[in-house]
Amino acid sequence: MTGLTPQPPLHQVESGSMEEPLLDVRDLAVRYGSIEALRGVSLSVKAGEFVAIVGPNGAGKSTLVNTIAGLLRPARGTIAFAGQQIGSLSSARVVQRGIAQVPEGRQVFSDLSVADNLQLGAYGRYFQSPFLIDGYARLLGGRRAMRTDLDRVYALFPKLHDLRDRLAGTLSGGEQQMLALGRALMSEARLLMIDELSLGLAPIIMRDIAEHLRVLNAEGLTVLLVEQNVNLAFALARRVYVLENGRVRAEGTPEELRRQPEIERVYLGSPIAATAMEAHSVE
Amino acid sequence: MSEFGQYLVTGIATGASFALVALGFVAIYRVTHVVNFAQGAFAMLGGYVMSSMLDRALPGPLAALCAVLIVAVVGTLIGMIAVGKPRLPIIASLMITLGLSVLIEGICLLIWGDIPTTYNGIGTKALSFANIFVLPQQVVVVAAVAIVFPLFQLFFARTYIGKAVTACALNARAAQLVGINPRVMAFLAFGVAAACGALSGVLTTPLSPLTSNADINIAINGFAGAIVGGLISPAGAVIGSLVLGIAQTMMAGYFDPSYQLVVALLVMIAVLIARPNGLWRRA
Questions:
Q1: A121-130: average pLDDT
Q2: Pairs across A and B, CB distance < 8 A
Q3: What domain count does chain A have?
Q4: Helices B136-158 + B182-204 axis angle, to 10
């Protein structure tokens, strides 16, 4: 292990124009049978940005990231990533393009060790076709790169190194969230999507992980955070989309949204909530 | 006492042949949650292909290798048909395997006819120890399980692809998010299962001549063994198969050979009612 020695970023640092959206979603509609979960959502994320999506339960937040990740098929609309359409790609292909997701509830591989979970995070980098022999050849050639990336994750989350031989299912919620983040980073993602970072985490753990995210973003990783905890989302993100009933209700910087009375009333509530927001702030 | 010892030894050999089929059920079920009704057909096909290879004067080991590889390819193709279509309901996949099993049965009848098929195994002179007789071919079957089972375990626990297959079994959605294609893993599982089944057929045909509907009995016995492990535990499947083999041989020896299949069905029903998840909870 490399310990806490400075490491180059694990993810791909975006050096492109800040004006070109890395992710561009246009008029996206998704249906579950007769129920329309997304009704023409448009949003964009520029390279290096930290964008949050907030909204109540059932607003379509998870549906949106799952569709971008290739787990769901859009009924209408387009998804472009780095200038290429990805709306019809499988989730495996989406990962290969550079989009990683930390799913809601972490969803670590419970009966595999922490180290195995992390190593499997790099699967899409090596196995890019159904021909497994082809992937194995790339894996054998890339063993050193895998080791280096693993060390970088351990440098970011030293606790995962201590727990590397433990079964992932035996970790605490916070440790599992670190593992899910580390697993996503192993894919050399250009865009990291996180679905409900704070779900089920103690505030102190949540703040710690949020701080890691802030550092990763400062190093150049593009982040799209789906979060029900509006205060946390406002504290972390530079831009926020408010989703309601499958539509984008508002969009802007946290400061701009706070100035909108309706958003302030519905999502941020009373001045007491604003105080709570300060407490959650990781700035 | 020697009678009991004889039944015990014969039962272990019988159970070992079930175990190879049971491991195939486990390999597929772990990844797809589909009970592969064609598993018995893989074993039957293995025996028939082996007999044809020997007819062409191929040496035994080479003929066995060819038979196992050919059936593994057939198994992979069956997997592609049964689980290749995205979002196909499990019940549809299950019915497809049943249909293909009947198709294989028909093809076997057309090619090899309805005359029982067999060939010589390794030696016909029984070995004796403490008044217990065992055929060399029975020793080979037990030895095959003793080799295949640890390899099976090592594959899933130690190899990168094996861990990816396990990841799919644990959480297919999370596996997709790291770039693993569950369908490719399912095809691999079908290939491995077919190879295990074929090996069983190759090794047991000298002990029990094949008929074109032999797959039904083979599948029932293998399934009953796998059920003991809840269809997910390889160790449970092997132990379950050995216990079943011994129970059947005792039943045939002390009572009536025609009740052998009844024992398998009773074991299956008892485990399904008492412990639907098998006697082994974990994979």
A1: 86
A2: 83
A3: 1
A4: 170
